[in-house]
């Protein structure tokens, strides 16, 4: 069974009638083939990735919205929405709620799921780890950490299965950017001598595979958003190999904060490891952007607003809104 199903539920404008269920269909490019899931229990911890093949061009979807479900029918089903402008343009993907105790990210993603576009498509999965979000915990022991599970494994742990389904959805929708909306505790600029994931608030990390032009685009978005917010709220850009004017850049190999980037000779940055920053390896043409919003002394509502500002400014710069 495919780990992604889609159902068009509303057509906006243009083509007339609203509504209408359509097909759930199968993906043809599953990342790996694993047979006899039952026989593979317990799963091996090592994922079985293959490099993504060059995908055929993404078709222009008719204007409207459709529900998207990952792992449909499973206890870990992830619900989302795909928003289509009906016009050619890029696709952007947004993940919220990968960690259940980071509500600024999932509230933002839920708001984003109601946006409308002028070009391109947007795939939003607001509460990826909804079971954890329901109890406001980072995750559940029986699920595991989705953001340490990429590229996933179709017959692995729940976190690996969810991660695998996210990769499959990415291969289907072919986003050029993927926002993963997270929260940290301490603001990066207030971290002092501390390091680790609890001290990377107000950072925007750009994943491996980004060329200089994409880094410039993301840097420009950070600059535009920073111009509209207070000095304390300003974002640092993590993962750019060289300085960018007007913003604070945290270069690769900085010891503060995991997931840790590492420099590659030549072209900047790759992100090793299994966080969403590695997704460019598995979703061809996609640059992941991991936002970490500081929770300390920053209201949840404001955190959600700032997440949305980053995504909205990006879409506006891409002429999608
Ligand atoms: Zn997180």
Topology:
Elements lengths: L3 E7 L53 E7 L7 E7 L6 E6 L6 H10 L8 E5 L4 H5 L23 H16 L3 E8 L18 E4 L5 H15 L9 E3 L10 E2 L11 E2 L5 E2 L16 E8 L5 H18 L4
Parallel strand pairs: 4-5, 4-6, 6-12, 7-8, 8-9
Antiparallel strand pairs: 1-2, 2-3, 3-5, 7-12, 10-11
Helix pairs in contact: 1-5, 4-5
The structure holds zinc ion.
The site of zinc ion has 4 residues, from loops.
If you had to describe this structure to a student in words, what would you say it looks like?
The chain has five helices and twelve strands. By secondary structure, it is an alpha/beta fold. It has one domain: Aminopeptidase, CATH 3.40.630.10. A ten-stranded mixed β-sheet has the order 1-2-3-5-4-6-12-7-8-9. Strands 10-11 form a two-stranded antiparallel sheet. The longest helix is centred in the last third of the chain and has 18 residues. The chain binds zinc ion. The site of zinc ion has 4 residues, from loops.
Please summarize what this structure is.
By secondary structure, this protein is an alpha/beta fold. The protein has helices spanning 103-112, 130-134, 158-173, 212-226, 300-317; strands spanning 4-10, 64-70, 78-84, 91-96, 121-125, 177-184, 203-206, 236-238, 249-250, 262-263, 269-270, 287-294.
H/E element order:
EEEEHEHHEEHEEEEEH
Distance between the termini: 35 Å
**Main pleated sheet:** 10 strands, mixed
Computed Rg:
19 Å
**What is the CATH architecture descriptor?**
3-Layer(aba) Sandwich
Task: Tell me how many strands there are.
Answer: 12
Key attributes of the depicted protein:
321 residues; alpha/beta; Aminopeptidase; ten-stranded mixed beta sheet; two-stranded antiparallel ribbon; 19% strand; binds zinc ion
């Amino acid at each position: 069974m495919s780990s992604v199903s889609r159902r068009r539920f509303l057509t906006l404008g243009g083509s007339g009638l609203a509504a209408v269920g359509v097909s759930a269909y199968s993906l043809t490019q599953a990342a790996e083939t694993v047979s006899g899931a039952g026989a593979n229990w317990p799963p091996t911890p090592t994922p079985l990735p293959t490099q993504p093949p060059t995908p055929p061009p993404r078709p222009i979807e008719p204007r409207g919205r459709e529900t998207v479900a990952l792992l449909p029918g499973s206890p870990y089903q992830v619900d989302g929405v795909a928003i289509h402008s009906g016009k050619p343009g890029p696709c952007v993907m947004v993940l919220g709620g990968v960690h259940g105790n980071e509500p600024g990210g999932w509230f933002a993603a839920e708001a984003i799921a109601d946006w409308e576009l002028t070009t391109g498509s947007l795939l939003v999965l607001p509460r990826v780890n909804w079971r954890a979000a329901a109890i406001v915990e980072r995750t559940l022991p029986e699920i595991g950490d989705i953001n340490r599970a990429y590229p996933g494994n179709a017959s692995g742990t729940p976190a690996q299965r969810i991660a695998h389904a996210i990769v499959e959805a990415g291969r289907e929708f072919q986003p050029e950017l993927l926002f993963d909306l997270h929260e940290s505790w301490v603001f990066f600029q207030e971290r002092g001598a501390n390091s680790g994931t609890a001290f990377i608030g107000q950072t925007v990390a750009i994943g491996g595979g980004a060329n200089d032009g994409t880094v410039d685009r993301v840097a420009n978005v950070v600059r535009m958003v920073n111009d509209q917010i207070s000095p304390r709220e300003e974002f640092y850009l993590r993962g750019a190999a060289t300085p960018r004017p007007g913003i604070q850049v945290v270069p690769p190999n900085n010891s503060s904060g995991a997931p840790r980037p590492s420099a590659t000779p030549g072209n900047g940055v790759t992100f090793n490891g299994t966080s969403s920053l590695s997704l460019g390896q598995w979703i061809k043409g996609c640059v992941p952007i991991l936002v970490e919003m500081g929770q300390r002394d920053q209201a949840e509502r404001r955190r959600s607003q700032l997440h949305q500002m980053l995504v909205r400014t990006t879409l506006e710069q891409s002429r999608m809104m």
